[in-house]
Amino acid sequence: MQRCLNYLKNFSFSKEDIDYLRSLGTFQDDYLDYLSKVRFTGDVYAVSDGTVVLPNEPVITIKAPLIEAQLVETALLVLFNRSSLITSKASRIVRSAGGRGVMEFGTRRAQGGEAAVDGAVDVYEAGVIGTACALAGKLYNVPVLGTMAHSFVQSFDSEYEAFKAYAISFPDNATLLVDTYDTLRSGVPNAIRVAKEGLAPMGKTLAGIRIDSGDLAYLTKQARKMLDSAGLKDAKICVSNSLDENVISNLLNQGAPIDTFGVGENLITAKSNPVFGGVYKLVAIEKEGRLEPKIKISDNVEKVTNPGFKDIVRLYDENGKIITDVLTLFGEEVPSAPIKLKAPDAIWKSKIVSKFTAKHIREKMMENGKIIYSLKTAEEVRENVQRELDTLWEENKRLLNPQTFILNLSPALQKVKEDLLTEYSANKQNNIKTYDLDEISENDL
Description:
Elements: H1 2-9, H2 15-23, H3 29-37, E1 43-47, E2 60-63, H4 66-71, H5 73-96, E3 101-104, H6 113-125, E4 130-131, H7 134-140, H8 150-154, H9 159-169, E5 175-177, H10 183-199, E6 208-211, H11 216-229, E7 236-239, H12 245-253, E8 260-263, H13 265-268, E9 284-287, E10 290-293, E11 310-316, E12 322-329, E13 339-343, E14 346-353, E15 357-360, E16 362-367, E17 370-371, H14 378-389, H15 394-397, E18 408-409, H16 411-430
Helix pairs in contact: 2-3, 5-6, 5-12, 6-14, 9-10, 10-11
């Protein structure tokens, strides 16, 4: 939302933009003149960054003159979808590490410089401990972390000399990359030697080693034994190499003694599912001073929209865990207990909830084109992410076949939706022509 709000605040077409559009020969001069002066003057209602949201919820609602709302569609979707995608992926990876640190190493695999920097912020907000992207540190105060490179090791005549030079340069945080040549026969022994011959005389200790290739479960187990035998029990083991939540879970299930993970391409690109399907649909239009609900109908049930200007009410149990979310019409009273919940796409499924706490999870963030919301820092969003994860059940957070929530509609919203579907169905039937075969004329054919 930080990026979306700032985009809307600064929305405009430059002279160069107008000149380009004019060169296309598609638009009339009066329209281009309008674009040269247009600014976003609408209102924005949204869920704050770091908040858990469910499928088919109106996370952001734009209430603005129609043309303004249409012009900002693509940019808002780009900003919302990419950040939500990367943050969600990062949360899965962080949770798979079971409390161990995860570092973001994906800058060189990101799909462009902007994606690298924004992605580093997104993953930090999701719980990653830091990034190797120094620019993200400069611009957004994200902790900058990293280790040595293979090219650094290769640039010396020997691995030992490379390790010693690095350790002397960074004596307080010497994490040595041990897999350039042979992890167990060369890398780890040389790291131990540098710890004793280079760091110990300085009163320093080896911070750790990093392994970036090979059988990470086997290598880390053997490396841990070697470090412990050498008296380096405090030296940490970091691993990298195309990690994701599934690989990390498998490594830990095998008992790999790993302290931190460096995760790159699979994190910064959300490689396993690189598309976040947020959509932007017209749900109401003002006519004669009142909002008239609109609905999009599709042969794909999941693409049928929930009409009208809506709000989200979240129900919590006595332990602060999410029971469900209820979509209501905007301004509708918060439901009170007991409440009967029905699944909108499976209305035969219902249950009574007799005890809950209800909370609106959206707030007004922009009014008449001006931001009225207190923009959050990355640190504040990070804290909100952790609070929100605590509202989920463990069954919701498991990586394989998680339990999902059913989004519910208030009775008033359900009636609006059913009325529009009934109206559409009736109009469709009225426009259907039927023929007997012998009455079909050549023109009909």
